[in-house]
Amino acid sequence: MGRGKIEIKKIENATNRQVTYSKRRNGLFKKAEELTVLCDAKVSLIMFSSTGKFHEFLSPNITTKGFFDLYQKTSGIDLWNSHYERMQENYRRLKEINKKLRREIRQRMGGDLNELNIKELQALESKMDSALLTIRERKYHVIKGQTDKHKKKVRNLEERHANLVLDLEAKLDRQDGTVENGGYYESAMGVAANKLYGLRLYQNQQPELIVQHGTNDLRLA
């Protein structure tokens, strides 16, 4: 039994559509190769799938440029000149845009103002005011962020210091000390929150709290 006739319309299923494209593309390339060998023909096939993939077949006895040169000679159409003209036009357009942007930058820096009329000067002033407002808002936002970060750091240090004092007081409450020969007590030492602290008690004097941070001592009477 022969295959049924396939209705020529777009295949809705994406997977089936891609499979069909691959099979028929390979069939076309095979036919193009047969024409090249059997008939000594110059054949070029350029194909783009629905997903944008590029596929090309070119007879081995000609280059892509040579094929287009032959096409131009046969059809009388100069593809390269028209393409070059489009490139030149695009270059002139981009060059003019660049010129305007450079002039606008100079004007925002206070240059090239002599040729501007009152309306153009007012428009430039309005743009400058708007830009200045945006810059100031950003500056205040950065300052606020830095200030909040500093305040948070100070609060953390204050909390660590308060916890250190509480820990020290708790340790002292559990300790008994006696005065010997009118001298000073031995230092009560302890460690809390990665800080080294000591308490020295002198005769007839207030206690002295020493908190060591790195190579520095902080004395709290």
UniProtKB/TrEMBL annotation:
Coiled coil feature spans: 147-174
Residues covered by the MADS-box domain: 1-61
Annotated compartments: Nucleus
Pfam families in alphabetical order: K-box, SRF-TF
Domain K-box positions: 84-178
UniProt keyword list: Coiled coil, DNA-binding, Nucleus, Transcription, Transcription regulation
Keyword Nucleus annotated: yes
Primary localization class, coarse: nucleus
UniProt cross-references to InterPro entries, sorted A to Z: MADS-box/MEF2_TF, MEF2-like_N, TF_Kbox, TF_MADSbox, TF_MADSbox_sf
Domain of life: Eukaryota
Gene3D superfamilies: Transcription factor, MADS-box
Residues spanning the membrane: none
Protein name per UniProt: Floral homeotic protein PMADS 1-like
